[in-house]
Write a structure and sequence with these properties.
Layout (H helix, E strand, L loop, with lengths): L1 E7 L9 E6 L8 E6 L2 E12 L4 H8 L8 E2 L8 H14 L3 H8 L15 E8 L8 H12 L3 E2 L7 H9 L3 E8 L18 H12 L4 E6 L5 H14 L3 E5 L2 H16 L3 E4 L5 H12 L5 E4 L11 E7 L16 H12 L2 E6 L4 H9 L3 E5 L10 E6 H6 L8 H12 L3 E5 L8 E4 L16 E3 L4 E3 L6 E3 L12 E4 L3 H11 L5 E4 L9 H10 L5 E4 L12 E6 L13 H13 L10 E6 L5 H7 L3 H15 L6 E9 L2 H18 L3 E14 L2 E10 L3 H17 L4 E7 L6
Parallel strand pairs: 9-14, 9-15, 10-12, 10-13, 11-12, 13-14, 16-26, 17-24, 17-25, 23-24, 25-26
Antiparallel strand pairs: 1-2, 1-4, 3-4, 3-5, 6-7, 6-8, 18-22, 19-20, 20-21, 27-29, 27-30, 28-29
Helix pairs in contact: 2-3, 4-5, 6-7, 16-17, 17-18, 19-20
The protein binds adenosine-5'-triphosphate and zinc ion (2 copies).
The site of one zinc ion (ZN) has 8 residues, from loops.
């Protein structure tokens, strides 16, 4: 008899514990099983198996309760190997999240323990040679000879008709079989297999990184300095050493470009993992990796958990990007996981960016990371010149348009030169909100403490924080008036304005709303590359990685959007966004320019970006972080406390604060205070912020508090500890 400890996903509480079941046969750790839990049959994960000589009755006498048997074993072999099972435990500890949540985060959705694997294998028919023999006709004989040397072959690839094959099957000379085929995403790229010859600067970086294996390298290379080629050369080097390579990129925005170059260079050896793949593709790509049939994985955040073995190199491109932080359980930082895996595999980590995060850059200056720099663009092309427009001045001059006079001039001139424009507005939708013209009431989300965004295409109001959608209101809920005005503007409105303002303007809008369909990313960018449009308008999705040689003008419509948010990283984000988007201009043989519209023309994030001066920005921002005590000068944990009931929430917040005060030393505890969005999805939300330099006792106190709340309160209050918080919303 075996006692099997099973991790289950509790439907209500977020328990982090196993339950014991019995089994007559031994099971492998990590396989999924069906078990009874209360009145339900649910999926669980085998975490431990112990053999026992006792019978069921004896065991029950000892334990004082009845044991259930495992009902069904789902997997023949564990989905996660030993390394990844260990990593799940480590992740659970680091982030104070239930182990089951960690396992779930590590698997593609079709394989998550809570769902049945509804995605099946895709099969195709192949013809297999059986035996020599005399076929009835000459053609049939030829076909048989062909199959003798090409067996098995998918019947669609055999240069003989189905009829001939059927005849051979009848004669018992060949047979049909079903064989698994992989659904391969983006298989349309041609492999070129040719690496570009690196410049001296690039070669030096590659040599340096290779000479210091097992280290973390920070590659600080200006926009257009050819970081991608450095990644490709490093990947080639590690592949030649029979090692595998992980290439991570920020979410969907950048994936298309990077996927394309990796597929072109390494073809069949590349698997792709990102959210836009179909269920079947994800399932197949995952299995190709697991079976060690590929050597390179290109993917977004969760690809850091890919079951690659023998990893030699892990690259995080655009390492400063906030999408590397997972904002739901388990709230991990991708670089942290990359470093853990690199240590296990004795692998090298490369963090690349034109605008490294302050945390990474300060580590590099301290020697924790190795610093490599690419200070110039390829072919010594100059970085674009950047001009700032003070929008206060425009209003003074009675220009109330969304475009400054200079912006209009520049866009028109670029179109007239038959060159292309990229325009950034970091806000999607048509209008920011809808307001009653008579009483001033603003239309808000009934579930969240935010205004609804008007989307003109669909003539709907949408909440950007929950799934809530409503049609355009007939009348004001407050006064009954039927007159509304739209306030603020998003990409949809700009698109309309552009087409009105500029003759011959053909606009491609690139944001979450226009890139929903599969491969629409590729298609829109391909159209722009082929110059089917002269303006690419988008949210921050267009700021990174894009490399179009005909783009000579970049306009930023409202640089203040990211500056005026209550977040200690607001300046850093703004600087990064502006440098990145400016970097899209003048990447070909023609010089580029950039225009930034702002109401804060003197702000250092904006002036430093306009001079492409990372050092100056770094110095000034570090002073602020030191004075106000923010990372990298301290660690931070944000505790989000949520409840449906405001009164229960208040009490819990005070309890938690008191507990932390009593159990921690030498740290600053701020709050509780309303979260930036106090109500979201019908939950009220408060935050407590802890800042500390040395934090063993902080971790212990949080762990105890976290366990207490998530077990005892039965869902009335939830507490989420966010180490390395990136969002204060
Ligand atoms: N050694 C080389 N010889 C010729 N062209 C090169 C070389 N290396 C890179 N390039 C070209 O230079 C351009 C810029 O390179 P890449 O896109 O890698 O820049 P990057 O550093 O990633 O910039 P960003 O941070 O802006 O994305 C690309 O068109 C690339 O093909
Ligand atoms: Zn009204
Ligand atoms: Zn909402």
């Amino acid at each position: 008899m075996y006692i099997v400890s099973v991790l289950v996903e509790h439907p209500v509480q977020s328990l982090d514990m196993t339950f014991d079941y019995l089994s007559h046969e031994s099971l492998l750790k990590g396989v999924r099983v069906f078990v009874r839990f209360g009145y339900q049959k649910i999926i669980g994960y085998v975490e431990d198996v112990k053999e026992t000589a006792l019978s069921k009755t004896e065991l029950e006498q000892q334990a004082g309760f009845h044991y259930q048997y495992i009902q069904e074993v789902i997997d023949q072999e564990p989905l996660l190997n030993e390394e990844l099972q260990q990593l799940a435990l480590q992740l659970s500890k680091l982030t104070l999240s239930p182990r089951i949540a960690c396992l779930q985060a590590m698997l593609p959705s079709q394989l998550k323990p809570s769902t049945n694997h509804s995605v099946g294998l895709k099969l195709q028919t192949v013809a297999c040679f059986l035996q020599e023999g005399k076929a009835k006709t000459k053609k049939q004989q030829e076909c048989l000879d062909y199959l003798k040397t090409h067996s098995p072959t998918p019947i669609k690839d055999i240069p003989y008709s189905k009829n001939i094959l059927d005849q051979l099957v009848k004669q018992g000379l060949i047979e049909y079989q079903k064989q698994e085929v992989y659904r391969k995403p983006l298989d349309f790229f041609q492999t070129t297999n040719q690496d570009i010859i690196l410049t001296n600067d690039q070669q030096k970086v590659v040599d340096g990184i290779i000479a210091h294996p097992k280290r973390v390298a920070l590659l600080h290379g200006v926009t257009g300095s050819g970081k991608t080629e450095v990644y490709l050369a490093l990947a080639r080097y590690f592949l030649n050493k029979q090692k595998s390579v992980m290439m991570l990129v920020p979410e969907i925005s950048l994936t298309p470009m990077m996927v394309k170059v990796f597929k072109e260079r390494f073809g069949e050896q590349v698997a792709i993992l990102h959210s836009r793949l179909s269920q079947g593709e994800k399932y197949d790509e995952y299995r190709r990796i697991k079976r060690q049939e590929v050597k390179i994985v290109v993917g977004a955040r969760s690809a850091v958990f890919a079951p690659l073995e023998n990893i030699g190199l892990i690259i995080l491109d655009e390492e400063h990007d906030a999408s590397y932080k997972q904002e739901s359980k388990p709230r991990y930082l991708t670089s942290q996981i990359a470093k853990i895996r690199a240590q296990t595999h004795q692998a090298t980590v490369v963090l690349g960016s034109a605008t490294p995060s302050l945390e990474s850059y300060s580590r590099a200056l301290k020697g924790v990371y190795d610093l490599y720099e690419l200070k110039n663009r390829i072919n010594q092309m100059p970085l674009p010149t950047v001009e700032i427009v003070d929008m206060v001045n425009e209003t003074r001059q009675r220009n109330y348009s969304l475009f400054s006079r200079r912006m209009k001039e520049q866009i028109q001139a670029t179109i007239d030169r038959h060159e292309q424009v990229i325009l950034l507005l970091n806000k999607r939708g048509y209008a920011t909100y809808l307001q009653c013209q008579d009483c001033g009431e603003v239309v808000k989300c009934p579930h969240c403490d935010v205004t609804l965004t008007y989307h003109k295409d669909e003539h709907q109001l949408k909440c950007h924080y929950c799934e809530y959608v409503q049609s355009y209101p007939q009348s004001c809920a407050h006064c009954g008036s039927t007159h509304f005005k739209t306030v603020g503007y998003g990409t949809q409105k700009i698109e309309e304005e552009l087409e009105k303002t500029f003759l011959n303007a053909k606009v491609i809008r690139y944001d979450v709303d226009t890139t929903k369909n599969k491969n629409s990313h590729f298609q829109l960018l391909e159209q722009f590359k082929k110059q089917k449009a002269n303006i690419l308008l988008g949210t921050q999705m267009i700021a990174k990685g894009l490399d179009f040689e005909n783009v000579t003008f970049v306009g930023v419509l409202n640089a203040d959007l990211s500056l005026n948010v209550p977040d200690f990283r607001a300046s850093e984000r703004t600087f990064q966004l502006l440098c990145q988007v400016a970097g899209r201009s003048g990447r070909g043989s023609k010089a580029g320019t950039v225009l930034i519209q702002t109401y804060n023309p003197e702000h250092y994030a904006i002036t430093c970006a306009s001079h492409h001066d990372y050092q100056a920005f770094y110095q000034q921002e570090m002073l602020y972080r030191q004075k106000a005590l923010y990372p990298p000068y301290c660690h931070m944990v944000s505790i989000l406390i949520q409840s449906k009931h405001e009164d229960i929430l208040q009490i819990a917040c005070q309890d938690i604060k008191n507990y932390l005060l009593a159990h921690t030393h030498q740290c600053k505890i701020l709050g509780p205070a309303h979260s930036v969005i106090y109500k979201m999805q019908d939950l009220y939300r408060q935050r407590i912020l802890i800042k500390f330099v040395q934090g063993k006792d902080v971790y212990e106190a949080l762990k105890t508090m976290n366990d207490f709340y998530n077990k005892k309160q039965k869902g009335k209050v939830t507490v989420i500890c966010d180490f390395n918080p990136y969002s204060q919303i």
